[in-house]
Amino acid sequence: MRTRLILIATLALLPALTAGSIVVSGAGLAAQPQHSVGQPVWAIQLRPADPAPAPPAGRDDSAPLPTPDIRRGRDAAPVPPPGPPQRSPEAVPAPKKEATPQPKSGPQQATPKGDRNGHPKATAKQPHEKISKGLAVVQPRTAKEREKALTDLYAHLATADDEAKAKSVARSIERLWLSSGSDTVNLLMQRAMEASHAKNNELALKLLDAAVGLSPDYAEAWNRRAYVFFLENNVERALGDLRRVLALDPNHYKALDGLANILKDIGRKKDALKAARQLYDVHPFSDGAKQMVDDLAREVEGRGI
């Protein structure tokens, strides 16, 4: 009977043995080929069935797949088993970059909106522009404008409250003196001054002769030539040019100063006193003007100012 049962079982398993393996689901049995020397080609070995294959590592149909770690060239770690929630490496926030400390500053002032032309509007908080304390003199375009500008400046000079203001006005006056209205005469004047500074008085006189010849009404050309004549000890020619200057510009204080000093040196002290007083009236802060008036007044009239 036992032999018969084995034969029946063998016949029943023959198709599976031919295929190479069999798993009996209900009985938990399995058959697989065995190749061993000295044993039958097929033998039956009963063993527990292999457990069902587990899902691939890292796969969880109930949760989304983790993001691959592409920076390392491999997939992310498997999803951990259920338990307390854990943060995956990808979920760890990157360290925050520390902000560079900025220097502290006071409250920012709002920029004022511009006008219709796009220019910024002035506000009470905006700093005011510095205003020059000197006199603003527009460069005259005609001889008439130049004469009017000089007249106004001479009035400011005569009534100056202090020496600083007087010097500021004097600088404006002397700039107008150098403006002849002719580019040629201006160039001749410049070259003559350069020659004079180089002690080339002969050349300076030739240049100034040309200047007064081209512009005989230009007072400063006569004044410069008078100075060069004085350097050459030609007193008579110097006095003649100075008188010409004062005929064109009675308030030319440099000419008045030169005239007073030359007249004093040659002993014409009464005429010198007259010129010195006129100088003091035009430019009260002229260097040495008041002292010269006092000295000459004591010599001529026996008293000071």
Question: In brief, what are we looking at here?
Answer:
The protein has 305 residues and is mainly alpha-helical.
Unreliable spans: 16-49, 58-82, 88-92, 114-134
- Count of β-strands: 2
Q: How would the global form be characterised?
A: extended
Going across the major beta sheet, what is the strand order? 1-2
Q: Number of helical segments? A: 10
In the CATH hierarchy, the third-tier topology of the domain at 143-300 is known as Serine Threonine Protein Phosphatase 5, Tetratricopeptide repeat
Secondary-structure arrangement, i.e. CATH architecture of the domain at 143-300: Alpha Horseshoe
Largest sheet, strands/sense/barrel: 2 strands, antiparallel
